[in-house]
Amino acid sequence: MQALQAVSPENYSGKHWKHPGNYSYAADLHYVPVVAGELLKAAAHLPLVFAKVTESFQLMAVMSLQPGTNLLVGPQGQWLGGYIPALLRGYPFTLLQSDKGEYTLFSTSEGEHIVAAGEGAPYFDAQGKLSPETQKAVDYLTEVMRSRAQTQRAVNALAAAGLIVPWQLATNHNGETQTVEGLYRLDEAKLATLKPQQLVKLRDEGALPIAYAQLFAREHFGQLQRAAQEQERLRSTGA
After folding, report:
1. Which residue blocks in 161-220 are alpha helix, DSSP H?
2. Nearby residues of 64 by Cβ (< 8 Å), 6 or more positions away
3. Geometric angle at alpha carbon 42, from 37 and 44, rounded to 5°
4. Residue 151 in contact with residue 34, Cβ under 8 Å?
5. What residue numbers bound the domain in which 127 lies?
6. How far apart are CA 88 and CA 52, in angstroms?
7. How far apart are CA 50 and CA 34, in angstroms?
8. Torsions phi, psi of 124, nearest 5?
9. Number of domains in the chain
10. Which residues of the chain have pLDDT under 50?
């Protein structure tokens, strides 16, 4: 993976970009964070789990139970799922937050997204300001990050209520059954025992939609198995 560089005139002046038209850049991502703004669509298509990142739980969409493998990215980079997570759609850009809470736009200076003039949008205009296309990408990612912060507050509330518990899952890899470590689920039984005031607190934090979405999205693990079968078919046909 190419190193990220801050999108500045010094790094990207004179360069042009476009989305490569495929998702090969996500081929090794088995989990992707999900934000509240996309919750309904994500839960309708992808299994959702909680995973611990540093000291906090995060809501994740699962694209494979095997690290380094994305079953929803085909051999030619085609997307095989019904929904593409918001953070993946922001490519080739990402926003990174400093210790002071400020966001900076980053990208990579090599890859299929770097194109010749006339084939894509410039990173910067002639005055050294972000081009309209690049600014549109910034605005999109800014909204995603705001939604991500809202999501994190909600997930933190679920964790504080003791509703996130370990999830014992298994996957079959090369004919062997392997236990998947580090995934968590909502404790549905405990949720049902909460007192009204506890439920009101979770509601006010926006946590209840996330709780129910994670429960309902459990049914989508079968889609990953179907995606694995489609992967085999595509490889056998060279598609």
Report:
1. 188-191, 196-204, 207-216
2. 30, 70, 71, 72, 224
3. 125
4. yes
5. 5-237
6. 20
7. 10
8. -130, 155
9. 1
10. 1
